[in-house]
Amino acid sequence: MSASCPPQSPAVPKTEIAIEGESPLLAATFAYWDNILGPRVRHIWSPKTEQLLLSDGEITFLANHTLNGEILRSAEYGAIDVKFFVLAEKGVIIVSLIFDGELKADKNTCALSIILPQTELSFYLPLHRVCVDRLKHIIRKGRIWMHKEEVDKACLEGSGHSIISLLTTEIIPVMELLSSMKSHSVPAEIDLRDTLLNDDDIGDSCHEDFLHKAISSHLQTCGCSMVVGSNPDKVNKIVRTLCLFLTPTERKCSRLCRAESSFRYDSGLFVQGLLKDSTGSFVLPFRQVLYAPYPTTHIDVDVNTVKQMAPCHEHIYNQRRYMMSELTALWKATSDEEMAPDTIVHADETFTPNLNVFQDVSHKDTLVKSFLDQVFQLKPGLPLRSIFLAQFLLVLHRKALTLINTSKMKRKSLRNLKTDLDLTTEGDLNITMALAEKLKAGLHCFVFGKSFYTSVQERDVLLSF
Amino acid sequence: MITSPDLVAFTKEDDFGDSYTELDSLPDEFSVPLFSHDENKNPWSKTSFAKFTKDFILISEFSEQVGPQPLLTIPEDPRTCGSFDLNYFSLRIMSVDYQASFVGHPPGCGYPKLNFVEDSKVVLGDSKEGAFAYVHHLTLYDLEARGFVRPFCMAYISADEHKIMGQFLELSSEFSKASECLKTGNRKAFANELEKKLKDLEYTRTVLHKETELQKKANGCYSTQAIEKANELANVEKSIYEHKDLLKQITSYPNRKIKDPEFLPYEPDNLFNSAGLDQDQMPNSFNTDDPPEDSSYVRRPSYTPQFIKAKSAKCFDKRLKTLEELCDVYFFNQTMEQLAQIEKMFRGDLIYISTNQIFGALLKKQKITNFLFEDYEDHRDEVERDEYCQKQNPCSAAEPALSEPVSIEDYTSCVETVPIKLDQEITDEELQEAEHTESSPCDVTRDNSEEAIDVDIKGSISSGDSIEVLGTEKSFLTQGNLIKSESQPTLLSPNSETLRKKAVSKRTNSEDSIEVLSTTESHLPEDLRATYPSAIHEEETYLDDSEDQMYKQALTELGREAGPEVQDIELFNPQETTEVDSACCMGQEGLVFEEAMPELAQECSDNGVINVAPQSCRQGDQALHVDFSLDDTSYAPTEGSPGVLISYDLNSSLLPEELSRLNTDDISDSNSFMSASTSSDRTSSPFLEGNPITERHKKKAGQSALRFIRQYPFAQQAIYSLLSGRTLIVLGADEGMVRKLVNALSIFLPNLGKYGEIIKPWLTSPFQITDLQNWKLIGLHRVASPMGSSLLYSLNRYSRYISILDADHKTLRCPPYRGTFVSKLADHRTQIKRGSTYFMHIQGMLTQLSSTVFLYTFCHYLHLPISCDEEESLVVQRRMEFLHVLGFTNEDIRIIEFLAELLKQHYLQGPGRGAAPPIFRFDYTSSFLYKI
């Protein structure tokens, strides 16, 4: 990987994590800028493997590198900046999140980094946003934690719950996520024969209406869905079918279901297959679902139900509120018990989100309906259906782009916009809006002219036109 | 189902607003913004912090004298960077050596060792400044620099953080190319510098040697001066060794790197064609077999060695070499060009860059329909790139064969392009060779291909085992000649000729080749068949009877499928016996056509006057020969049917009157039609003959199209004509106005071709009926002269087959349109204001149309009888019902049928084969005169 580097003294504390399967992550580090000694590595997490991929000295050398240029950092206090390195000379890629934290009674620049081999660049890039979003949130909590510790005059090592243990609660899931993606990610190119679109007829594998609802809702929630079921093959077939409607990069950020035992739900993946346990249920972490960048469609292949979360802008609003309540709860916490990572959410009772986060798909569309009606009329086994699918996706993207361009010029013409673009059916508008929102974040609020509407309010607005 | 313990805590129903105040207790520095997007914030607005107006590229250096410093920006305009502090940013991006590795004297090594470090790539941001950057670090060599290295970086700076990460791979790839170019030039310059230095050192050694000898003679061997000289000499000797070693290292670099599978050596384009390239700017090749000592000395002017001190002074007052000097002028300029390209490539909003990439990937998957409405260049390039990639990487090419074939063409033809020399005498051996060159992956899909042929295109001409020439250099040229000669060669500028030639020369992968559809037992030259028998005169000799019969069958098959109302006129070769349907003759006033004779056409157009007097319709046109393939059984005229000949209501008696009126108008009002919708500015017309039509052209045309549909209430009828394959003539006195209208309408035209071959934006001479096959949109010059009258006479004569948009009088004569599709496509009430947005809207609608056409064409049960005894009429009825279910009625069906026919032809002939449909078809439909 690289030439050996002299180890630092004293030795850096290290946590070795046992990961099931292959871990593409070489190490994770937490480093800070010591005002006397310069960049210092505080902690190293590395997967437990027989073969030593990177020595501690090398890891320390790399981690220090991420902070070297930050002596000039002029970011606003509280900002979390992301740096990304591809160091061909060392054969590694490093993702570093730089932030200000309070350590040893001083304000320091800190860096939480993950290190991967350079060969994993194309594997990692589609997952960059997922990893960064998750690490950013744990850093937000970590900053409050560090601040409180300083206020309490508790030294870093002496505290019952150090910053390291807090960070560990997210580092391990990120490592597991990357490991699971290594073995079960959906390939960029999907063979149509592995999907429901290869059936002779629309109702062959699943009920016609179920498939229509699933795809329609999947598109309305920006291509973000979870597929739950007891039969892994059935789940994976739906996963692949839904992934047909994503871009190759988004597919690489989707995960198939594991046959032996289910993966845990991972926030931020586009489509993921999840296996029910022996009791026929799957425990879904509310917080994780809410922290996903897009709303999610919940598809149960056992009972053929499709439910969806609120539209994107409403979802983001709920997400931010929940994040705020979580951070506020941590800020207010007075005891170690309250600050324990697992109990943080429960401590807050001021914010009560709607429990019915998943609701029935109420918006009917014509786009997906006619697509499905038509695609099954083409002979299966030939590439005809692939071509027809590509045409459908091209139409969707072009509609979304036209919608974006139209909105750019004239924000208050929603009715005209619907007529001009032939989006008078509510479901069609939702699908196009979701795609447009994915392409241009913030478009929904801009078009509706209000930063936040609940979906009910939004419907009223639409009807009033 | 959702049984998370997380949910247990939340049982209280509450409005979102109530708990809002509780969240205020969290200090801002620890909170997250609740509203990610402000109510009034435009999602396109840049971050308020950014102090620069648009993205730019910055080149910085870590100078050993002054530290990090910006060198130049691309674009150079200082307004681009605004008040952005380049010095500070350079300091930030260059403050860390990301390529830290050893240079100089490694332990145990007597000589300095060059370390060829890999480039590092860093993405970083300055959230306070609102600047985010992709930074590409590279190291250049300089003999006078400390450790011989000069660290540089090239940074792409943007205010959009997502853009940088979203396009990381693309940025990385492009900057790596630029870096490789820079480094190649640097290695050359470094080697040259070493050579010069070596010459100096050798010269110095000679001088010192002489001086030492003199000293020895004068003062003896052990005198102080003699010892000093001897030491100096020894230092020079050592220095020579060191420099020779360095030279060896630098010259052996490419050879070492080539062994690295990921190394892509820089290959300059048109290296020796570059104008103004001095002899000494020519890049040397660095190869151990061809050492620079030989090559460079020959090329460069002789160098006069200088005496140097053995110990070179490393002082800080020396002038460091500029980047240009470090990298050789040629390579420096090449890199600057590349960087300028990169800046252009990534300019603008991320959504347009990313959607273009998505569109590209999707268009690649639907190559079969792209010819209808998509940008020709895009999908053509894709095809060529694919072919190239497959040649480059046979492993990757073989992969799809194992899974589902990527495109439908794989099934039908398993096409493999075999470049050949295009002589008329194509020998059997050559063809056999061509066959043998076919790679085995074709065999993998052959079963599928045969199945597809059997099922999809029953009776198709490409069935069975045969070799087909789909298009050749000759056929292309012949067609080109026909087009030129039949119209008005004088109008074609020399430029367009040059461009055409250039275009032809670039088509080595397509037209200049034989495409082998599948293997065959026997493939005689007689098997070779031209793509456009009506247009390619010379190649008709290849058609033997059996081939001809097959071709006819295929066409008849296609004609039959086109529906009862459609009547086809097919142009066959002249040897064929003319079949004239008497019923048709009555209706058509006995038109008898034969294939266009180039000589005759030449004669007609050379002097701009028709020399051969047009025959009356009843007498038959001697110049043309027609074969009506009207199916009597399917041709059942009904009331209101557009195909009914009786309903043809073009009042011919009015035509001479109108003709004279038009002429009078031309004289009296030639300048009175400067309407708001058009202008007569000739230079503003973006459509130029001979130039490839790009999406940019089309976007520009979108504005004209928008204006057209707003100002002409009969715009839908005009567009319907175009979409249904009926030639539309835009008639006008003012060239600018006509060209603008042609340009506006061109975006609705299917099968436009790369160069818009089916458009004649400005025609000043009379046209022939065969021109109507080649051109689907014609701008016709209305002139008040004898030529003008003959021109209008031809217009009058063929007016039953064409639609005429009179730009001067704002009238349109064409069949009526009562469908719904075009109404949505060209709604004059549309609130879309911008031409580019309207073009996007049109693109979306036309993609939808292509999709329907594809479905209609490839739905097997629509075209084949379900049972053996099912009548054709039932199949036709099924097709009609199918289109009705899809929401297509009346004239919309004609559009679908026409486009489906085009698609069939394209499918049979293979992708990228010319522009005009081989079937010459007219719809005998009532025309109406529309006025504003």
UniProtKB/TrEMBL annotation, chain A:
One of its GO terms (cellular component) is endosome. GO terms for biological process: autophagy; endocytosis. Pfam families: C9orf72-like. PROSITE patterns: DENN_C9ORF72 (PS51835). One of its GO terms (molecular function) is guanyl-nucleotide exchange factor activity. InterPro entries: C9orf72. This is C9orf72-SMCR8 complex subunit. It comes from Erpetoichthys calabaricus.
From TrEMBL, chain B:
The keyword Iron does not apply. The keyword Transport does not apply. Residues 274-301, 671-692 are annotated as: Disordered. It is found in: Cytoplasm. It comes from the Eukaryota. GO terms for cellular component: cytoplasm; guanyl-nucleotide exchange factor complex. GO terms for molecular function: GTPase activator activity; guanyl-nucleotide exchange factor activity. Residues 672-685 have a biased composition (Low complexity). Keywords: Autophagy, Cytoplasm, Guanine-nucleotide releasing factor. Residues 47-904 form the UDENN FLCN/SMCR8-type domain. One of its GO terms (biological process) is autophagy. Its main location: cytoplasm. InterPro entries: FLCN/SMCR8_DENN, Folliculin/SMCR8_longin. Belongs to the SMCR8 family. This is Smith-Magenis syndrome chromosome region, candidate 8a.
